[in-house]
Design brief:
The complex is a heterodimer of chains A (about 90) and B (about 475). Chain A is an alpha+beta fold and about 90 residues long. Chain A is built from four helices and four strands; from the N terminus they run E-H-H-H-E-E-E-H. In chain A, strands 2-1-3-4 form a four-stranded mixed β-sheet. Chain B folds into three domains: about 140 residues; about 55 residues, Alpha-Beta Plaits (2-Layer Sandwich), CATH 3.30.70; about 250 residues, Rossmann fold, CATH 3.40.50. Classes of the chains: A alpha+beta (about 90), B alpha/beta (about 475). At the A-B interface, helix 1, helix 2 and strand 2 of A face helix 1 and helix 17 of B.
């Protein structure tokens, strides 16, 4: 069954990039190949999420299938894509 | 050594950005006392014992950012506001660069080998057979190490078929190439400043974040906000550290308020020319080899620990020193800021009168974040007209890059070798060089494994940085096919 690929946008605005977003760009290394195959990943312009004062809404941000998530780590990114793939 | 981006380094950058944001908003003095609470809110799940200790550590981090020597000048009765006032009024010296936050030290147990429950008490007993000090005894059918006899050689760990032996190091002590860091009688970290070469290996290895670098960041922010004539001298390793091209990074620096941006690769060209010429002279005169001289941690290593090599290292000045000369020729009144991946450069720069401050890429990142400068969206700055002459010296940041630049400028062929990453073992090898010369003419020495691109002040995994340096667009930089790393 051919499924539409999940759109993943990793914010590479400066704030995200320096708060660990740069490490998310190593996705070829840390994502499972099958998971990798299920999505289209790109570095994206600033998602304009970093301007709030909410202590829990922090960079780096990633948009997975249209929803923006804060504090994304490599592990969290893998989980998010997996969730989206199984949705 | 820890990864470049971990909970601690990310927290450090966050603190730097928050302090700078408040500084540029003009209210640092009034908010700084409560910044630790803002950064560590009550409902945070703490990584240390509690949020209160985390807040105390934030306070220390802010002090290091202000340039305070925490070891000697920690006055608990002084508020952060008072420290800020002092830092804004006078320009403190930030040497020695490395300072320790003793309450943060985990008081790690002494280095030891431990035999775990996985020991099967086997018949062959290779641990016992291979122990040179007869330190292994068997109690109730299980191996045990007699600590009084053990010399931490690790032979038992190598030979146990069940991987029952574990090695528990003291991370800072293990990382230090020159035995300059130890636990003192109270069991907390202490740096022997006469021995320290400021490589920063210890601060990158401590999982508790107990070793801090004193920063000139606030001083630089002050110069920028006062609209001084400030020139940024950018180390060759900067390309790939931010989400954009080198020319976009230069635009970003100009947007921050720097009057001009000069690539240190220009000075590297002079260093390489000098070394190419010098090595011919030395070889003709019968010298067996020459080492490079651009790595400031290596320079301190020779000065403090391997005196025998002082006559074998190049007399060329560092790229930073030559670049400072070029800058001052053109702008005699300008303040010069070196921006690089290196902590030892802070020590070197302190000896060069024309250089006003040194900050790292990680510290620069906080300036960009505080001023909302998005490198990805920056226009490309024009390429310097004379860049063809020095463009290849941008490679100085990479292992073998210096040697290659020298070879290109050399009239006759020279053989090269490179030392990448100074640790206890390489120091021992270097000490033998005067008796048994290395089998190459030019020895390039870089203190950090992975070169300057993996220095203590970088913020991007070298794999990604390398790709960005090759001109890959940031949007697709993580994707294949790029080949290698």
């Amino acid at each position: 069954m051919a499924r539409k690929k999940i759109k993943v946008r990793i914010c590479v605005g400066t704030a995200c990039f320096v708060q660990g977003g740069a490490d998310l760009l190593l996705y070829e290394d840390f994502l499972d190949p099958q998971l990798l195959d299920s999505c289209d990943i790109e570095g994206s312009s600033c998602l304009v999420q970093c301007k709030t004062d909410d202590p829990h809404w922090k960079a780096p941000f990633v948009e997975v299938a249209g929803i923006v998530y804060p504090n994304v780590t490599q592990k969290r990114l893998a989980e998010l894509i997996e969730e989206a793939a199984n949705a | 050594m820890l990864e470049i981006n971990n909970q601690y380094t990310l927290m450090k950058r966050r603190i730097d950005s928050e302090v700078l944001k408040a500084f540029f908003a003009g209210n640092l003095e009034s908010v700084v006392n409560t910044l630790p609470i803002k950064i560590i809110p009550r409902d945070r799940e703490p990584n240390r014992c509690c949020v209160y200790k985390e807040r105390a550590m934030v306070r220390y981090r802010i002090m290091a950012l202000l340039g305070v020597d925490i070891v000697d000048d920690d006055d608990e009765f002084k508020t952060l506001e008072m420290y800020v006032k002092e830092a804004l009024e006078e320009t403190p010296s930030i040497l020695p660069t490395l300072t320790t936050i003793t309450p943060g030290c985990g008081s790690c147990p002494d280095e030891q080998y431990i035999i775990t429950d996985s020991c099967r008490g086997c018949f062959a007993r290779p641990c016992m057979a291979n122990c040179p000090k007869e330190a292994i005894v068997f109690i109730n059918g299980r191996a045990k190490i007699n600590e009084d006899r053990c010399i931490n050689c690790g032979k038992c760990l190598d030979v146990c078929p069940f991987h029952a032996v574990i090695h528990v190091p003291v991370p800072c002590e293990a990382a230090c190439p020159v035995d300059a860091i130890h636990k003192n009688a109270r069991g907390v970290v202490e740096i022997d400043r006469d021995k320290c070469i400021h490589c920063g290996h210890c601060s990158r290895s401590c999982p508790f974040g107990a070793i801090a670098e004193r920063s000139a960041l606030l001083q630089v922010a002050k110069m920028l906000s006062e609209k001084d004539e400030v020139v940024a001298m950018i180390a060759p390793a900067i390309e790939g550290q931010f989400p954009g091209s080198l020319s976009q990074i230069i635009s970003g620096l100009l947007a921050l308020g720097f009057s001009d941006v000069v690539e240190v690769a220009q000075g590297a060209h002079i260093t390489a020319e000098h070394e190419a010429h010098e090595i011919q002279e030395r070889l003709t005169a019968g010298a067996p080899f020459m080492t490079t001289s651009c790595c400031p941690a290596y320079m301190q290593l020779v000065d403090k620990h391997v005196d025998t090599l002082s006559e074998y290292r190049s007399k060329a000045l560092s790229p930073m020193a030559y670049t400072a000369d070029l800058c001052i020729e053109q702008r005699p009144d300008a303040k010069l800021i070196f921006i690089g991946p290196c902590l030892a450069k802070k020590v070197e720069a302190a000896q060069i009168a024309s250089i006003d401050a040194v900050i790292t890429f990680a510290e620069l990142a906080s300036l960009f974040v505080a001023r909302d400068i998005d490198i990805k969206e920056m226009p490309a700055a024009p390429e310097p007209i004379d860049s063809a002459q020095f463009a290849d010296c941008r490679e100085f940041a990479l292992p073998q890059g210096v040697a290659r630049s020298v070879v290109r400028r050399s009239r006759s062929p020279i053989s090269t070798m490179h030392i990448e990453g100074i640790d206890k073992k390489t120091v021992r090898i270097m000490k033998t060089w005067t008796k048994r010369p290395p089998e190459a003419n030019l020895i390039e020495v870089m203190c950090c494994e992975g070169g300057c691109l993996a220095g203590p002040g970088v913020l991007v995994n070298p794999k990604i940085a390398q790709r960005l340096r090759r001109g890959v667009n940031i949007a697709t930089v993580g994707a294949k096919p790029l080949g290698g790393n």
